[in-house]
Amino acid sequence: MESIGVNLEKMRLRQHLKTEMAHYAADCWDMEIHMSYGWIECVGHADRSCYDLIQHSTRTGVAMVASERLPEPIQVEKLVCEANKKLIGPRFKGDQKLVLAALEGLEGAELDTFKSAIETTGKATLSEKYEITSELVSFTTEKRTVVETKYTPSVIEPSFGIGRILYAVLEHAFSQRDGDEQRCVMAFKPSVAPVKVGIYRLINHAPFDPIVSRIKDLLHNENITCKIDSSSGTVGRRYSRADELGIPFGITVDFQTLLDHSVTVRDRDSMSQVRVPFNSLLEVLQGLVTEKLTWAFVLSRFVVVSVKEEEGEGSAATAAATTEAAPVVAPVVVQYSTRGSFSRPNPLSK
């Protein structure tokens, strides 16, 4: 659940009380997620023991058992129930095959209980509906070479409420930057986000178009879903629109790209940006999308860009995102705005 974006601090496991469990359950646990409606059961795990297979075996007369081969054969003394087929046939007629199969399936404690009832009262109930009297069966102890053990398997029943889990992912991913209703963010994990990467032009400028198309083709060839936002307005407004859609990473093509073949890569959650050479772009994005690379690692490897994201007219607030390379401080930072960019020594570098 945590890997798809459910908040670990809002999950808990709760064991059912005996009064809550179904008749077939030996134990039952729920995984509950806290949402705006309170604690909601989203996953149930029931230990049905061997109830289901025993019921099938009882109704069909077919032994529902599994076998496990032993590493080496062993000699054991085994209690055997032998059926008197000459008497069972006329007594049970059409059900004789079911009775014989049920008698052959008696083993272990169940066979001991059956024998004790026959010896004590002269009769015993088989499969909850057949009355077996003493003349119909006999018991012997014989030595056998055992090469496998047989048992009735237990059944674990997991049940997932997919709709509730998806609602939890959506609710836990939602936030607002600084409480601003105009700046909503869906912080989807990269593995969950429908669109992994947004591609932007700093402005609508013809020389940017072939570079944007090249980046799109590069990502599509590696099955990384991306979306080009060519709408009007500042790039900051487009970033905010992508944040609302839950796009975790963004690539911006600007005038610096035309000079040194590098682009800025933006992280949605921290709003920080780094300058990445084109020949390293695919490797970085593959690592980020598959979550094999962390954003902190990317910050330590590439030049950090100090930017001011402008929402444009009518926005409720202006977001200032000044980033630092951690744990390694970049020696050079790029001051970047809608009017251009320039490099200068990083004042934090010592």
From TrEMBL:
Question: Could you tell me the Gene Ontology terms of the biological process aspect for this record?
Answer: mitochondrial glycyl-tRNA aminoacylation
* Lineage, top ranks: Eukaryota, Sar, Stramenopiles, Ochrophyta, Chrysophyceae
Q: Enumerate the Pfam families for this protein.
A: HGTP_anticodon (PF03129)
Protein known as: Anticodon-binding domain-containing protein
Alphabetical GO CC annotations of the entry are: mitochondrion
Say if the entry is tagged with keyword Cytoplasm: yes
Classification via Gene3D superfamilies: 3.30.720.200, Anticodon-binding domain, Bira Bifunctional Protein, Domain 2
Which terms are listed as keywords in the entry? Answer: Aminoacyl-tRNA synthetase, ATP-binding, Cytoplasm, Ligase, Nucleotide-binding, Protein biosynthesis
One term of GO molecular function: glycine-tRNA ligase activity
Specify the Anticodon-binding domain's residue ranges: 206-286
Where is it localised?
Cytoplasm
In which organism is this protein found? Answer: Spumella elongata
